[in-house]
């Protein structure tokens, strides 16, 4: 059962949280106006154009901003662009830029800055991770100092959503020229904080930008991001006052943390779907009946309780509710008898042996794959499980050079459409062009009809047509069952009661622009 969105703050039992850790008095960073935000993974770069990691862009947003951004409902808001116009054919966009904005190094923000940033990501020699997000741009023209015209090679429905993504940041052209590829270590943007230092295994620090264009912001003297991969340690740091914010939280500790009077524990619906892909190029997953059997064999309601402590609900389809053009369907029912019947029909009456990899090493992921292992054993499928370290994940899954020899079989992973619409929930994961190493279709799923629907929706400028096309694509994918959709998890995080203005977005990103501390 999914828990409703809640903000909880109740009385504290100060000891007994974790592994013998005892809460001790620690001077909170709040007193210095320099709050500490603890996150689960370290940023691999401070170049927003060269990452696919949500929490990395959460950090870079301290220093950078783009033409647009998403609000808490994933609606597009103007930031450095005040307005735009688009031609009826959907090919040409003209943007009116905000005047009077300066980068941290004093360089003025203008049309030349927009042109420099987009041309940088469009240069294939730079090999930036976000190239595919912008490669439909044909030309960028500076019409006047504060007007830019962008012409696309073909209509691209999600274009403004792509510009609202946190990766589409404006970097100082002077800094780009000075640092080159090393801009990844020297962020210079127009955001509320200037860069102080990055200790790669410890922290990223920013200081208040006195010249920030939004009056009254930022409201604190500085900000510190601290990566802490271990779930329990993040929770303990909240208890001791070493951290003022932590995300994500271990679900099993939500109750204990909520009893602390100095903390607010917050659970909110997300667009993060957890699923298991099945390599359709390999037996037995090339048989639809086997893939259907695996779907029937897993009790998603029980999984949500066991692995997510109730902070999740069964996935209904391929694209989660809250994503534009999501098409709701029914979750696969739990029917182990049906699973055994399908396996028998497919020639696997005695089951088979396989391996299930997890893209994560967290305690929640470990619980999830162990639960799936037990469920599949009940229908005769013997599964070995392994949680992959980051290097293994990249080498064995994401950069596998030959689909025919790729080692992945069953793969537990998750995704959120960080552009807020269905294209980025489908194309990188389920189109033929997205087979690794290019993108993330770890099922090696290929359906010409689905490819055509996604491609047609991509160039359509009609909302009604895109709704219909994406619905058909999602229905066909669901029938083909390249995945076992599992759950939509909730975002669970906590803040000190003296901290405000920080929230986790539906895609798992973090909005900290309004961060403030009580006096």
Give a verbal description of the structure:
The chain is 27% helix and 25% strand. With 519 residues, it is of the alpha+beta class. Strands 1, 4, 11, 12, 13, 14, 15, 16, 17, 18, 19 and 20 form a twelve-stranded mixed beta sheet that branches. Strands 7-8-10-9 form a four-stranded antiparallel beta sheet, with helices on one face. Strand 22 and strand 23 (510-511) form a beta hairpin. Helix 14 (448-459) runs antiparallel to helix 15. The chain is globular, with a radius of gyration of 23 Å.
Summarize the structure.
27% of the residues lie in helices and 25% in strands. It contains 15 helices and 24 strands. The longest helix is centred in the C-terminal third of the chain and has 18 residues, at 463-480.
Oligomer: single chain
Helix content: 25-40%
**Structural category:** alpha+beta
Evaluate the radius of gyration. Answer: 23 Å
Q: Average pLDDT value?
A: 91
Strand content: 15-25%
Q: How far is the N terminus from the C terminus?
A: 39 Å
Total helices: the number is 15
What is the overall shape?
globular
Number of extended strands: 24
Let me know the largest β-sheet.
12 strands, mixed
Low-confidence stretches: 1-32
Give the SSE layout.
Layout: E1 6-8, E2 15-18, E3 21-22, E4 36-39, H1 54-60, E5 68-70, E6 76-78, E7 81-86, E8 92-97, H2 111-122, H3 131-134, E9 137-144, E10 147-152, H4 159-164, H5 173-179, E11 193-199, E12 203-208, E13 222-227, H6 231-240, E14 245-247, H7 254-258, E15 263-278, H8 288-297, H9 300-308, E16 312-314, H10 336-345, E17 352-358, H11 363-377, E18 381-387, H12 390-398, E19 410-416, H13 423-430, H14 448-459, H15 463-480, E20 483-496, E21 499-500, E22 503-504, E23 510-511, E24 516-517
Parallel strand pairs: 4-13, 4-14, 17-18, 17-19
Antiparallel strand pairs: 1-15, 2-3, 5-6, 7-8, 8-10, 9-10, 11-12, 12-13, 14-20, 15-19, 15-20, 16-20, 21-24, 22-23
